[in-house]
Design goal:
The structure is a single chain. With about 70 residues, the chain is an all-alpha fold. The chain has a domain at about 30-60. It has two helices and no strands. The chain has helices at about 30-45, 50-60. It is elongated. The protein starts with about 30 loop residues before the first helix and ends in a 12-residue tail after the last helix. The mean pLDDT is about 90.
Amino acid sequence: MKSEYDLSKMQSRKNPYASKLKKPVTMRLSEDVIEYFKSMAKDSDIPYQTLINLYLRDCLNQHRKLDISWHSS
């Protein structure tokens, strides 16, 4: 291995994993939802934010859709 390298001739390239990086967002979640995921996270030894991300990714992969139609009485 050389003791010194000349990086001035090195060409840059795009990060192939850039599209897979996580983006920080601010969300407002109900306390009971947070406690639910924190409890699950403690049982599975996974950070709760990672667990929420995994759950949402599963929804994405399964093409789950939420029925938010309002039913009139």
